[in-house]
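Exercise 4. Each item below gives a protein and its sequence. For each, produce the structure-token representation.

Item: ABC transporter ATP-binding protein (Sinorhizobium psoraleae).
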Amino acid sequence: MTHAPVLKVENLQTRFKSVQRGKYVHAVDDVSLELYPGEIVGLVGESGCGKSTLGRTIVGLERASGGRVLLDGVDLSGLSGAALRNSRRALQYVFQDPYSSLNERQTVGEALDEALLIGGLRSQDERNSRTKELLDQVGLAHAVKDRHTRELSGGQRQRVAIARSLAVNPRVLICDEPVSALDLSIRAQVMNLFLRLQKELGVACLFIAHDLSLVRQAASRVYVMYLGKIVEHGPSQELYDHPSHPYSQMLLASVPEVDPRVEKLRSAPLVVGEVPSPTSPPSGCRFRTRCPLAFDECARTTPPSYGLSPDHNAACVFAADLYGGKRSALVRQGAG
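Answer:
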């Protein structure tokens, strides 16, 4: 990338007090990432790995315990009042569940009008015109504006949620699994809509998902997150062709094949088991308790992020071997 990132996250940390006295949940631990103008970047990992907390911390819905979030080079933690509100408008969030993210007592028009008013559009005529434009953009009839959000289907609600997030002309969207709560029959429609709008409007997007096939379709770069840390990141195609962290390999091995005959014959996933508690994460490499390659050193030392190509890094002592093409041997080992 030759231009400057529109969003830069530096060593971000988010901790919560645990129900256990004196302990904290380390939801996000020393995470850094960059998002450039007009690009879609994927953030993948299992449930409980900290993806949503990271997204919520970036937009200010959770308080950071450390690190910085910079928008166009400006540290948001150093802003207050009108300056902070203006910066926050440039960062918008699309929630996973369209049933809980919209006020069921509001009509569609009221939901969009409220967003436009907060965004500084004072003229009612201008807000009405902008509402019609937003509904056109997301493929909803103008008459929908008079219906309450509770009357809409899940796909329609998510289209309204996307329209609301675009109302203030954001520069960055944080999309938290925006289609996972929808029926399979309409996921593709909403996803195609989202990709079209992102391309037309040129907004940068951090796309949070556990569905790696969606991320592969949408993202130019991918960050893989495990137990609060980024364990691998790189160009999407390269990471999918050469996954160089055992956890990335596990995620890819878990994606079902479209052809049932291929699915039946493929190797088993690398590892099994659950994500450890973020209150008491394992020492050293956090993935070691589930990794088939772990040895004594993995418990003693946190692995650095090894550079595998100019834009591809993985935090595993075996990263170079995995990148070099030894994936099939590891899959056989994991499958037993």
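Check: The first strand starts at residue 7 and ends at 17.
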